[in-house]
Amino acid sequence: MTVRIIPHQGPGQGGSGLLDESPFSLAATDAYVRWRDHRLAHHPRTPGDLIVEVANPAALTPAEEGALADRLARCNMAVYAGPAEPILSREGLRAFGRRFGLERLDANMLSDIDGITPLSVAEGGTRTRYIPYTNRPLAWHTDGYYNAPDAQVRAILLHCVHPAAEGGANALLDHEVAYILLRDADPAHIAALSRPDAMTIPGNAEEGQPPRPDSVGPVFSVMPDGRLHMRYTRRKTSIVWAPDPAVQAAVAALEGILESDTSYILRHRLAAGQGLICANVLHNRTKFEDSGERGDGARLLYRARYHDPIHIQHQETLVP
Ligand SMILES: [Fe+2]
Question: Which residues sit opposite 224 in a β-bridge?
C-alpha cells in the first residue's frame, strides 16, 4: 500500500480556471453535474468508512491527519477513534481542531468560559430548557442556525467522554449531498431555499445575557471561500418559513429526504474516546438513557463550534 499525498481542492478553492465556475450557481449546469458526479462517486458507503483510528487526538500523526482529511474532503465529516483513557482534555480537543484550521470558537451563551460546551443532562439552570441538555431526541439541524450572518458556525467537533447506557446516536447527512438531492429533484427548491428571507428564527433573551435579535437568512448560501453553507432546523416551533409556496414545497422536499432511507444518511453512536469533526453537516440525535449516578454513568460529550471553515493542509489517499 502506498500513501499518496494530494492537494485538497473543493469547489471555488482552485486557481486553475477549471474550478472558477461555481457548481452552486443554478446557471452552471455543466459545472454542477461534474461536481455532483464526483461527490456522489466518492461518498462513503457505510458509517465505518468515516472512522479513523488514532493513538492520540491531541497529537495526530501525519498519516492520521491525512486519513481524516480524506474523509472530510469526500463528505465533510470524519470520526476519529482515540483511546477512552486518558480522557482527552479540552486543550487536547482544541489542539485537534487546530490541525484542521479551527481556531475561532463560537462562544454561545451556554458554553463554558473556554468556548467548549459540555453536553450532558443538566440538573438545573438555563440549560434545562434546551433540548441538547436533556435526554430527548434532537431533530435534524445544523448548528448555530440562529447566529448572526457574520458569526455562522462552519465546523463542529464533538468528543465523546462517556456514551449513554443506551441511545444517543447521531444521524449525519452531508449538507452538500442534501443540496444535490434537492437540486436533482427540482432546481426551484434550491432557488427557494437560497432566498435571503427563507427562514426566520425569532429572537431570544436569557437573563444576564444580551438579547438575540431575530435571525433571518437563507438555508443555502455560498460563503466567500466558495463553499456551500446551510442553516436549517426541523423544529416546528419558534421558526417562521417564508410563506412563498416555493419555499414551503422545498422545505417539504427536504423533510422527505431527511425521513427517507437514503444510504447517504450515515448513523453512528460515538463510543468513549471517539469524536466527530464535520463542516456543520446536517445531524440529529436519538433519545438516550443514562444509567447509575450522575458523573459516573452519565453521557458526556464535549462540543466545540467554530467560525472557521475546515482547512485541509494535506490529504492522504490510500492507494491499494
Ligand atoms: Fe447540533
Answer: none
Distance (angstroms) between ligand 1 centre and the Cα of 68 equals: 20
Residue-wise pLDDT tens digits, 59-71: 999 999 999 999 9
DSSP tag of 27? T
Distance from the CA of 229 to the center of ligand 1, in angstroms? 15
CA-nearest of 61, 34, 103, 18 to 307 is 103
Could you tell me the pTM of the whole model? Answer: 0.90
pLDDT digits 0-9 by tens, 72-98: 999 999 999 999 999 999 999 999 999
> In this structure, which amino acid lies at residue 11?
P
Q: How far is the CA of 284 from the centre of ligand 1 (A)?
A: 7
| Collapsed DSSP state (helix, strand, coil) of residue 3 | strand
Neighbours of ion ligand 1 (CB under 5 A): 143
Residue 74 backbone phi and psi in degrees, to 5:
-85, -35
The percent of the chain in helix, strand and coil, each rounded to the nearest 5, is 25, 25, 50
**All structural domains of the chain:** 8-319 (3.60.130.10)
**CA 133 – ligand 1 centroid, Å:** 11
Q: What would the DSSP string read from start to end of 219-258?
A: SEEE-TTS-EEE--B--SSS-EE---HHHHHHHHHHHHHH
Polymer length of the chain: 320
Partners of 315 in beta bridges: 6
